[in-house]
Design goal:
Chain A is of the alpha/beta class. Chain A has two domains: 93 residues, Roll (Urease, subunit C, domain 1); 401 residues, TIM Barrel (Alpha-Beta Barrel), CATH 3.20.20. Chain A is built from 18 helices and 24 strands. In chain A, α4 crosses α7, α5 crosses α7 and α12 packs antiparallel against α16. Chain B has three domains: 46 residues; 205 residues, 3-Layer(aba) Sandwich (Rossmann fold), CATH 3.40.50; 167 residues, Dimethylsulfoxide Reductase, domain 2, CATH 3.40.228.10. Chain B starts with a strand and ends with a helix. By secondary structure, chain B is α/β, with parallel strands linked by helices. Helices cover 35% and strands 20% of the residues of chain B. In chain B, the strands form five sheets. A nine-stranded mixed beta sheet of chain B has the order 5-4-20-19-18-6-7-16-17, covered by helices on one side. The chains are: A alpha/beta, B alpha/beta. β16 of chain A pairs parallel with β8 of chain B, so a sheet runs across the interface. The complex binds zinc ion.
Chain lengths: 569, 439
């Protein structure tokens, strides 16, 4: 493998506390090294920013519902140029739901190297893996969904933590999953009957368990299994006015639980797309931000992390494992609605959506995301996402960086809104003059999410010994003052190196890279009862045989990278 | 001593049964018996063993006779006709694995091919309807565990998907449906009193080609609107009664087939069926599922979707992907005479396309990759027999409800035979060579 020296850039690395010092970064054999003599390649990064490759903790980029989003929206291919086949570059199209090729190229252009697919239905795991296998360049992992799984509901209802843990370990192994995702706990099972769970004490029909018990139980099991990532939660009541009380009730469930892992992770709960869960008011008429209330809680509770889910004010395609939410969203906008309920496990829904800056609710949603990120006290615990593509497509991250880094850029957007006064009135955004630094942006986009995922020792930083994932952006922090330049530069990385291999050279894709896929294999104490339960349930209730359920690592994964954990008691 | 292989996947229809057991000889070369499968599935396994199987590629001579050739020569020929053509059609993909599809797509990207699958003559109208109005759906296990109202509309599972009824729908017993068929009300809508209709609690004989009107009437009745005395040959009393049955259920599912996708109205029928399903969700829970035919036509739509963004009729001839059924669909392209080279994989347009299209296929250089001789091989210039996916080689397949299942290898193919993925790999190499692309 080639050795590379990146010379003279402004290096920003929160892992080491480096804040824009002019430094060289050396790479050998796929890793960052202390120093290097006679490099094979030298990159002159003078006047440019050097950061670790970006890490996306929550994005919907691969799998069954993403592909429904692609195939049922041919119009989505018409809203941006369909890039032609060119050399090693595959043809690449799609706007809010890009094809696997375009997904990889656009993440690369932004300097991102690790992406977590945030919702894998276990029965569809093979599909998720096939798409990830075909996605070049970026390292990926997928989180299977557990919050509506019949085994989990049964074991947690009876307080059988050993059994729940043994089952979850088995499912992670079977689906080649990375961690525990929970979407609308209990609510998606209720949706199988057309119902929902809107508070943490709404019982799940027939299963006689509450979301409170599910969330607490999953956090406990997560630590019992010593997983690299914490419980990754999309709580109940997403997207509804007044839901912030449900969110606070949910966040409080983390109190008293201690992280227990060897991966440097400090949180026990990651709450995703918190913007969608921080709404006040009782209807859309008196809808307002409660971002401050929710962020105050997070600021004072170090065992909680969040990502924002910024609204980008674009036309997009919403898709979540929260089936009932998508049904109700469709009742609001009357565009097309797709839904898939998955036997014994989960569900999902998909609805196109237009976040118009002239609709005041959308303007307020846009404000809430920014307000929360600007009120956050610790950006190692608050991450930049759009819940792609739900609040907007991921390739808008550079625009969000611009908004976070420039009060002027935010005011420019507010000034073009039809309902500017009303939007300003419903959140505190207008009164915040904070402008985030590149250091804080680096915390939100690489160091922080890497740590929360338990990957902090290998990615998200520039410490010698770490995987050489490095982005060089054509942005000079000493001389640049135009906020537009932030958006441009962070959409057009000049160089990208992934695992020591040059992917972007002078802005051109020169390699499809050698992506890898993480999964977690936890050894638990052999558990006859769980084995029997699994066998019987497959025979009686599944429509696929148990022996045809497991995802074959060698067929369906590119460079599988297994994290081994011993949780035998 | 023979041995019994279990959990085998049947590579016949979109039901994609995965509980087949196959008895093979001790040396693993001979299939002796097939268990659990339907008659058609068994036949597919047993037919693999037929002694008159063609095991090497063959080229058609001037005089119409076949001459055996090697896989390497056949790959060179295939690459050449695809590279020479301005608009090569690469059709089929429904009876092969996602791995073979994917290799084919990489070829198409380089030669500027049109990728189309059998949905083009089957559930293409369903895909278009989904693009119009979406689709509330579920996996077949949801039907098994929950459904207490099942409609079969314009489909005849008793013949086309024989084990569907016992595995997933009418007779299956699940968590909330422990009494099997006694837990359910079955409604069949079809102009013909089919064998499936004879199993129904309610058989609705709709007038031929009047599905759209009847679906509209059901939606109107659901909203409490007044109906004329008869719609599509069905009395209004019956329509109200059906609506009451549906509303009274806890979980409704509509299965539909070619009877509605290709009768008058086509995709508009499906729009209306999907809209009825969505409306039913205001009263109870409802889902709708297309009865997809070939065992992996669903997979073809999936792979095309994640690689190019469209589920069928994908035209790469301009260097990027375009989709416009009616323009970029196989039969339209063929009949307009735009296709000047053809590759057929895992399907039989010779049997399923209109004769005018088949004549065009006959008139242009065509390579047919198929384990068996078919009406399509007869009109091709080159026939490449390959191992049978799901019997002689495994690979990824998608069930009609989009559930991915990895099919298994049961026996070796005849000595020296390649799989279609392997053969397409050879073609890709040759194409790279012709185009001067580094691998
Ligand atoms: Zn999400």
């Amino acid at each position: 493998m080639t050795s590379i020296l990146i010379k003279n850039g402004f290096v920003i690395d929160p892992v080491q506390g480096i804040r824009g010092d002019k430094m060289d970064i050396a790479i050998n054999d796929g890793k960052i090294v202390k120093n290097l003599s006679n490099p094979d390649k030298t990159i002159d990064a003078s006047g440019m920013v050097v950061m670790a490759g970006g890490v996306d903790i929550h994005s919907h980029v691969a799998g069954a519902k993403v592909n429904v989003g692609r195939t049922f929206r041919p119009e989505d291919k018409l809203q941006s140029t369909y890039a032609p086949y060119h050399g090693i570059r595959h043809m690449a199209g799609g706007t809010s739901v890009p094809t696997v090729f375009k997904t990889a190229y656009m993440y690369a252009d932004m300097g991102y190297t690790t992406v977590i697919e945030a919702a894998m239905p276990p029965l569809y795991a093979r599909h998720t893996h096939e798409e990830m296998r075909d996605t070049p360049i970026i390292d990926e992992a997928a989180l299977p969904m557990f919050g509506n799984n019949w085994f989990v509901l049964d074991y947690l209802k009876r307080g059988e933590m050993d059994n729940a843990a043994a089952y979850i370990a088995w499912l992670l192994r079977s689906t080649k999953g990375y961690g525990i995702k929970c979407v609308n706990p209990g609510g998606t099972e209720a949706w199988a009957w057309g119902l929902n769970c809107l508070s943490i004490d709404d019982p799940v029909p027939y299963f006689d368990i509450t979301p409170r018990q599910i969330v607490s139980g999953l956090m406990e099991v997560n630590e019992y299994l010593h997983l690299p990532h914490s419980l990754h939660l999309h709580s109940n009541n997403l997207g509804n006015p007044g839901n912030y009380t449900t969110t606070l009730d949910t966040l409080k469930l983390s109190e008293g639980i201690k992280p227990n892992n060897n991966f440097g992770r400090e949180q026990v709960l990651h709450h995703t797309h918190i913007q969608f869960h921080s709404y006040g008011g009782t209807t859309w008429a008196d809808f307002e931000s409660k971002g401050k209330e929710v962020m105050d809680y997070i600021n004072s509770h170090p065992a909680v992390t969040c990502d924002i889910g910024f609204v980008t004010l674009d036309e997009t395609t919403t898709m979540t494992g929260d089936g009932p939410f998508e049904y109700h969203l469709n009742k609001l906008n009357h565009l097309k609605w797709a839904n898939t309920d998955v036997e014994l496990e989960c569900g999902s829904g998909i609805v196109p959506y237009v976040y118009s800056k002239d609709v005041y609710v959308c303007g307020v949603q846009w404000s809430i995301g920014l307000e929360m990120a600007l009120l956050a006290k610790d950006h190692m615990r608050c991450y930049l996402t759009t819940d792609h593509p739900n609040a907007g497509p991921f390739w808008r991250y550079p625009r969000i960086m611009k908004w976070l880094m420039s009060e002027k850029a935010r005011n420019d957007v507010l000034a073009t809104m039809k309902n500017e006064d009303k939007v300003r009135d419903r959140s505190t955004l207008g009164s915040i003059d904070r402008e985030l630094t590149l250091y804080e942006i680096a915390q939100m986009t690489r160091a922080g999410p890497a740590k929360a995922l338990g990957l902090g020792s290998s990615v998200g930083g520039l410490v010698p010994g770490m995987q050489a994932d490095i982005a060089v952006y054509p942005y000079n922090p000493e001389t640049e003052s135009d906020p537009e330049k932030i958006e441009w530069a962070f959409s057009h990385a000049k160089y990208l190196i992934k695992s020591g291999e040059v992917i972007l050279n002078d802005g051109e894709v020169v390699s499809n890279g050698n992506k890898k896929t993480y999964w977690v294999d936890v050894k638990t104490t052999p558990n006859r009862q769980v084995e029997r339960d699994i066998d019987q349930t497959f025979v009686k209730y599944y429509t696929v045989n148990k022996n045809n359920y497991e995802v074959n690592e060698h067929e369906f994964m590119k460079n599988p990278c297994v994290v081994q954990i011993d949780a035998i008691q | 001593m023979s041995k019994r292989l279990t959990d085998i996947i049947c590579p016949f229809c979109g039901t994609l049964c995965d509980d087949i057991e196959v008895e093979v000889s001790d040396d693993g070369k001979q299939i002796l018996e097939v268990y659990n499968s339907c008659a058609i599935g068994s036949e597919k396994f047993l037919h693999a063993q037929s002694p008159d199987r063609i095991t090497r590629p063959r080229m058609k001579q001037e005089d119409g006779s076949w001459k055996e050739t090697t896989y390497e020569e056949a790959a060179k020929y295939t690459a050449k006709i695809l590279c020479d053509a301005k608009k090569p059609l690469m059709y089929g993909w429904s009876s092969t694995s996602c791995e073979a599809q994917s290799t084919g797509h990489m070829i198409a990207e380089q030669v500027g091919g049109v990728l189309d699958n059998t949905a083009t003559v089957c559930h293409g109208s369903t895909l278009i309807a989904m693009q119009d109005v979406g689709i509330p759906s579920c996996t077949l296990g949801e039907v098994k565990n929950r459904a207490d109202r099942i409609i079969f509309w314009g489909c005849n599972p008793a013949h086309a998907h024989p084990r569907h009824m016992s595995r997933y729908s009418i007779y299956s017993r699940g968590y909330f449906t422990g009494k099997g068929s006694k837990s359910r009300k079955i409604i069949v809508v079809d102009p013909r009193p089919t064998d499936s209709a004879s199993l129904a609690d309610e058989y609705i004989q709709v007038e031929q080609g009047r599905d759209y009107e009847l679906l509209s009437a059901l939606r109107a009745a659901l909203r409490g609107a007044q109906l004329p005395d008869k719609v599509s040959g069905v009395t209004k009393e019956k329509i109200y009664e059906i609506v009451d049955i549906l509303k009274g259920g806890r979980f409704v599912v509509i299965f539909f087939g070619m009877g509605v996708t290709h009768s008058l109205g086509k995709n508009h029928n499906i729009d209306m069926a999907i809209a009825l399903t969505a409306d039913l969700n205001n009263y109870t829970k409802a889902s709708i599922i297309a009865m997809r035919g070939h065992y992996n036509v669903t997979g073809s739509g999936q792979v095309l979707g994640w690689q190019f963004g469209f589920p069928f009729c994908v035209d790469l001839s301009r260097g990027f992907a375009r989709y416009n059924p009616g323009e970029t669909s196989s039969n339209d392209l063929l009949m307009r005479g735009e296709v000047d080279g053809c590759l057929v994989v895992g399907s039989d347009p010779g049997s399923h396309f209109p004769i005018a299209s088949v004549k065009k296929i006959h008139d242009i250089p065509t390579v047919c990759i198929d384990p068996h001789t078919t009406p399509t091989t007869a009109v091709s210039t080159c026939h490449v027999p390959v191992a049978i996916v799901g019997i002689e080689v495994g690979g990824s397949c998608y069930r009609m409800d989009n559930v991915p299942i990895e099919s298994r290898k049961v026996v070796d193919p005849p000595a020296g035979m390649l799989t279609d993925a392997e053969f397409l790999g050879l073609v890709l190499k040759e194409v790279n060579h012709i185009k001067g692309v580094a691998e």
